[in-house]
Design a protein that fits this description.
Bound molecules: cobalamin
CATH topology of the largest domain: Rossmann fold
Mean pLDDT: 92
Shape: globular
Strand content: 5-15%
CATH architecture of the largest domain: 3-Layer(aba) Sandwich
CATH class of the largest domain: Alpha Beta
Oligomer: single chain
Helix content: 55-70%
Radius of gyration: 17 Å
Structural class: alpha/beta
Largest sheet: 5 strands, parallel
Low-confidence stretches: none
């Protein structure tokens, strides 16, 4: 399987799809593929940071990632059927990264949650409107750019002032987020990956 991390980080698109197809044909665990793809993406991020990859390669890696997830998605099976557990999720304003957010969405949907995806570059007011309109009890915010941390703080402030804060929980995630940032911005939960996001969602709705 480390082969997949290698093929992904060297941007061998066809090889990535071939490894995935072969693995799924042998009834492999689909979540393991998500992990390997994420590790491959981490490596791409390192290469970009070290100036070995340019923006074009970063964009191409995003396309391969999406193509790979399209293959894996149908194999992440529905675990249960509770459609009324609504979760709002979006990438905060100023940030357009969505691959990680989309993995979180996929896992939540496959586990019976109804996800309202606000997309990327989501302003504070849109989070507030979505809470008002849908009555969702959990809001997820994704952040990859450190420069967008203030947008996250602002979105949570707006939710605090909306009169709805007592009825919702807020979870944050994305590479530069942490328990410390959670305290700093006033969120309720920090999730390191999609599996933790799912555990948080389950805990919120089982209360
Ligand atoms: C792919 C990528 C891109 C793609 C994004 C494609 C897309 N559709 O998302 C493109 C090419 C568009 C891009 C653009 C840019 N990028 Co970029 N990008 C990356 C890269 C390589 C990977 C990010 C990623 O998708 N990781 C894989 C996913 C699966 O991981 P993840 O997002 O962390 O998500 C997991 C967890 O964090 C968690 N999670 C995520 N969200 C949530 C939400 C909740 C609620 C929870 C609980 C959990 C959770 O679960 C996920 C699954 O396990 C990172 C480097 C890195 N290693 O992170 C740089 C990186 C984030 N980008 C960076 C930069 C600088 C940019 C640009 C500014 C570049 C430029 N000069 O234009 C632009 C930003 C434009 C903007 N306004 O947002 C920097 C940010 C530096 C910083 N300090 O902020 C990084 C760190 C690269 C680097 N090392 O310099 N980028």
């Amino acid at each position: 399987m480390k082969e997949l991390v290698q093929a992904f980080s060297t941007l061998e698109e066809d090889r990535v799809y071939q490894i995935i197809d072969e693995y799924l044909a042998k009834s492999g665990e689909p979540l393991a593929l998500v992990n390997e793809l994420s590790q491959g993406m981490e490596e791409v991020g390192r290469l970009f940071k070290d100036d070995e990859y340019a923006l074009g390669e970063l964009i191409y890696s995003g396309e391969i990632f999406k193509g790979a997830m399209d293959k894996v998605k149908p194999f992440l099976k529905d675990e249960d059927d509770k459609p009324h557990r609504k979760v709002i999720i979006g990438t905060v304003e100023g940030d357009i990264h969505d691959l990680g957010k989309n993995i979180v969405i996929t896992l939540l949907e496959c586990s019976g949650f109804q996800v309202i995806d606000l997309g990327v570059d989501v302003p504070a007011s849109k989070f507030v409107d979505a809470v008002k309109e849908t009555g969702a009890r959990l809001v997820g915010m994704s952040l990859l750019l450190t420069t967008a941390m203030d947008s996250m703080r602002q979105a949570i402030k707006s939710l605090n002032n909306s009169g709805h804060r007592d009825s919702i929980k807020i979870m944050i995630g994305g590479a530069p987020t942490s328990e410390r940032l959670k305290e700093d911005v006033g969120a309720d939960f920090y999730g390191r990956d999609a599996i933790e996001a799912l555990a948080i969602a389950r805990s919120v709705f089982n209360q």
